Structures are given as structure tokens and as C-alpha cells.
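Support request from a user on the community tier.

User writes: "When I paste my C-alpha cells into the form, the page sometimes reloads and wipes my input. The last time it worked, I copied everything first. Here is what I submitted, just in case something in the input itself triggers the reload:"
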């Protein structure tokens, strides 16, 4: 999928695309990292991008928005603010995505899942399972950046702001490791 020049210019302007050697949440390695926080730090840009995404979901009747911590929290909150519904977030406890802080999902609630970046889709799938386990129904997924270029399939309508296939490698096959280049873990999992 091709991104518009305008979207590419925004990523560049915000210095959100980093080049180096990164270890991702899934354990995969990559040369390119999308630092969504560089976009989300601008409330005006965030409001506009989420507004454009929600326009495509106008046909959906959404009761609640959820995002996984950390990246999904701001996105879920902004989407919920525009939709005038509640926003909650899930977080990992001993590696498992759970609802804490007294958050509840009403039985049958129509839920939108918001996420900053998707690489393997594992984190979003964990949130979807959590919502279903709690009695909600995921009606759509909204992504700021889809590194699969639209290939990931959550079995519900999925909307993306930035979408481009970006390579990542199993650690054993990483060409950067083979060249002895030191890797960093920019995500919050490195802090736990
Ligand atoms: O599609 P996946 O392979 O699951 O990878 C994407 C996940 O990785 C990042 O989170 P991270 O754990 O780095 O936490 P953060 O949002 O707090 O940085 C990102 O925010 C997604 O949740
Ligand atoms: O897969 C990830 O962990 C990941 C990739 C990326 O480009 N950006 C990010 O914040 N997380």
C-alpha cells in the first residue's frame, strides 16, 4: 500500500522514523523504527489524524474505546473524546494483557481498539481476546502505523493512518546482528 506524500512528509517533519538496529516488542529485529510518540506529542496533529480515521468509521456504533498501554492510551483517549464515549486501557501484568484499575467492559459493548504501531499484530490480538473474554464485541481496529502494509488480519474492519510494509527479522537471521551492530529496545517492555 502506498502512503500519500502528505503522510510521509508528516512522519519526516516529526522525526518519527528512526534508522538503526532495534529489538521490537515481539522480539523481532529491525533497521527501521516508527516512534509514534513523536506524532502523539502534538495534540493538534493527533486530533486531526484520529478525526480522519474516525470519519471512515462513521457507520459504526461505538460504545467504548480501548488501547494497550503505552502507545494505545493516547489514541484511545483521543478517539473516545471525539466519539463522546469512554476510553480504557489494557496493560501487561506478568506478560499477560489484562484490564486493571477497575476498568470494566459492559456486556455486549461495541468496542473500538486503538493502537499506535502494529508489527506482528500480537498485541492487538491480545486486546481483542481480552475484550471478548470480558463480554464486549470488537467492531473495529484503528492504527496509527501498520508495519505490515495492510496485510495483518484482525477479522474486523481495520483502519490505518500510516501503512507501509517495513521489514523485520527473526533474531537469528538479523543482518545487523551478523555485522555486530549493537541493538536498542526503544519500547516500554525493555523497562519491565
Ligand atoms: O504488533 P506487535 O508485534 O505486538 O508489536 C506492536 C506493539 O509494540 C509496541 O508496544 P511496546 O510493548 O513497545 O510498548 P510501548 O507502547 O509502551 O512502547 C506497540 O505500541 C505495540 O503495542
Ligand atoms: O514492534 C514494535 O515493538 C514497534 C515497532 C515500531 O516501529 N515502533 C514501535 O513503537 N514499536
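"...and here is what came back when it finally went through:"
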Amino acid at each position: 500500500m502506498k502512503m500519500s506524500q502528505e503522510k510521509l512528509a508528516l512522519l519526516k517533519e516529526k522525526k518519527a522514523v528512526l534508522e538503526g538496529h532495534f529489538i521490537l516488542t515481539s522480539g523481532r529485529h529491525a533497521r527501521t523504527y516508527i516512534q509514534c510518540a513523536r506524532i502523539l506529542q502534538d495534540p493538534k496533529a493527533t486530533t486531526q489524524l484520529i478525526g480522519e480515521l474516525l470519519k471512515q468509521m462513521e457507520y459504526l456504533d461505538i460504545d467504548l474505546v480501548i488501547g494497550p498501554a503505552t502507545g494505545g492510551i493516547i489514541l484511545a483517549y483521543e478517539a473516545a473524546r471525539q466519539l463522546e464515549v469512554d476510553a480504557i486501557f489494557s496493560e501487561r501484568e506478568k506478560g499477560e494483557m489484562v484490564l486493571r484499575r477497575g476498568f470494566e467492559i459492559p456486556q455486549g459493548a461495541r468496542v473500538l481498539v486503538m493502537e499506535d504501531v502494529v508489527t506482528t499484530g500480537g498485541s492487538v490480538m491480545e486486546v481483542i481476546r481480552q475484550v471478548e473474554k470480558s463480554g464486549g464485541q470488537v467492531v473495529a481496529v484503528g492504527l496509527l502505523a501498520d508495519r505490515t502494509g495492510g496485510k495483518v488480519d484482525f477479522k474486523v474492519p481495520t483502519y490505518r493512518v500510516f501503512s507501509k510494509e517495513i521489514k523485520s527479522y527473526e533474531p537469528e537471521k538479523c543482518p545487523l546482528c551478523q555485522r555486530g551492530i549493537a541493538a536498542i529496545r526503544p519500547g516500554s517492555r525493555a523497562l519491565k
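Agent notes: The reload is a front-end session timeout and is unrelated to the input. The beta strands are 17-23, 29-34, 64-68, 86-93, 96-99, 110-118, 137-146, 158-163. The two ends are 35 Å apart (CA to CA). Escalated to web team.
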